[in-house]
Amino acid sequence: MKRYSVFAVAREGARHHTGWERAWRSPEPKKSYDVIIVGAGGHGLATAYYLGKNFGITNVAVIEKGWLGGGNTGRNTTIIRSNYLQDSSAAIYEKARDLYETLSQDLNYNVMFSPRGLIMLAQTHHEVRGYQRTAHANALQGVKTEFISREKVKELVPIINIDGPRYPVLGGLWQRRGGTARHDAVAWGYARACSDMGMDIIQKCEVTGVRRIAGRVVGVETTKGSIDCNKLGIVVAGHSGVLAEQAGFRLPIESAALQALVSEPIKPCMDVVVMANTVHGYMSQSDKGEMVIGGGTDSFNNYTQRGSFHHIEETVRALVETFPMVSRLKMLRQWGGIVDMTGDRSPIISKTPLENCFINCGWGTGGFKAIPGSGWAMAELMAKGYSPLAAEFSVDRFKEGRFIDESVAAGVAH
Ligand SMILES: Cc1cc2nc3c(=O)[nH]c(=O)nc-3n(C[C@H](O)[C@H](O)[C@H](O)COP(=O)(O)OP(=O)(O)OC[C@H]3O[C@@H](n4cnc5c(N)ncnc54)[C@H](O)[C@@H]3O)c2cc1C
User: Fold this and answer.
1) Could you tell me if residue 5 is inside a domain?
2) Quick one: 166 and 265 in the same domain?
3) Per-residue confidence (pLDDT) for residue 72, from 0 to 100
């Protein structure tokens, strides 16, 4: 595969862009693979990439029922941060954030990582105490965050109203190297790198069954026929329960739609990401100028990928007090993705009761930021049977009561 570079862009410019290759191959499935990953979202593709890069395992197929990156990976609001409370969370999210720093170079694909800084607003005294606690925990974990004053918040976000009548801004948890990346590019970059290593990314192919013999996985049934494998990774976010049922086990997961919306493009007005957990809304400005606004999760379980009017109203109403300019914005688009949520709001990266079958799910409303770290850990678990980053996230924790409670860190949909 040809490398992308400034010289390649100049060369192709000179010949009217007629020489670009397809970014990845679209092969028909082979009869058998060493490893099959179900789900070509960011986590599935990153798992395949690190299997190849870190462990030399390249006889891999990534099977996707739709188009790659068409699930939550292509539907999220792209916030990247690692300011979680628990040690095991901070470790994996910070590993991911750190990998994002050089991901464009590693993949030779511009993922537009933009560490513009991120503030979580403290708008109640309870939040002030909570975020000060997180800042102390982060200091011990080696994650760089600080609790900043309301004046500093205003300096960083001039459009904010810090004197709101109900919820004045009292300060904020600031992560200077948090930010955003281009979601599609993350999926496309990993896909291109996987294809370049000889892996097969098979789109429009749904896994409809998991084949097992004597408690061990031996392959999958798909809409393109039966495919054998030695190891299986299930990385299907909102459909995790469906695939687990096919594999013969149950998961402590609920699926629901999470919504987001973007405004019309406007001139640059906010160059950091702001999350307002008390009023439940968050916002950043895309490179195109749109205000990217995160809404809430549907309050009932469902598998839809649609938006709904009451979410626009609720989300925008919540934000207007803190960002009065939002009242004058026209909203352009709205959508939903199916998020997979665990009771403690932490992910599952785990072996399963079915031998050689592994699962990565439960990232809920906040897994985009984790993609590189999650893929790294899942690949290690699948290749070696153990990953220090994944150890705490085993599904057994729900049996043993070892919860990793991130319900505060994950309090707002993000
Ligand atoms: C509106 C919204 C906003 C969000 N905002 C943020 C944010 O700001 N920051 C953040 O960190 N996270 C955010 N998230 C969460 C984040 O998007 C997800 O946690 C993450 O993208 C999950 O990636 P994934 O690869 O696990 O899943 P997905 O990208 O959903 O990929 C799973 C894939 O599996 C495929 N699949 C399912 N069943 C089958 C089958 N039977 N056979 C074959 N393929 C199958 C699906 O088609 C899908 O492509 C948001 C999510 C939403 C919906």
Assistant:
1) no
2) yes
3) 97
237 and 276 together in one domain: no
Q: Let me know: does 215 contact 356? Beta carbons within 8 Å.
A: no
42 and 136 assigned to the same domain = no
Q: Whose CA is nearest to atom 12 of ligand 1?
A: 366
- Which residue matches tokens 């009292």? 170
Does residue 409 have a pLDDT over 80?
A: no
- In this structure, are residues 330 and 379 in contact, taking their beta carbons and an 8 Å threshold? no
Q: Is the pLDDT of residue 280 over 90?
A: no
**Whose C-alpha lies nearest to ligand 1, atom 21?**
73
Question: Looking at 292, 325, 341, which one is the last position of a domain?
Answer: 341
CB atoms within 10 A of CB 147: 19
What is the model's pTM?
Answer: 0.97
Model confidence pLDDT, tens digit, residues 97-145: 999 999 999 999 999 999 999 999 999 999 999 999 999 999 999 999 9
Q: Which residues contact 205 (CB under 8 A, 6 or more apart)?
A: 29, 63, 64, 65, 222, 223, 224
Which ligand 1 atom minimizes the distance to the CA of 259? 1
How far is the CA of 165 from the CAs of 3, 204, 321, 412, in angstroms?
55, 51, 8, 21
Q: How far is the CA of 191 from the centre of ligand 1 (A)?
A: 15
How many residues does the structure list for the chain?
414
- 225: its two tokens: 């026929």
Residue 13 maps to a domain: no
Instruction: Provide the domain count of the chain.
Output: 2
Is residue 17 situated within a structural domain? no
Q: Which domain holds residue 61?
A: 25-79+85-94+183-252+344-400
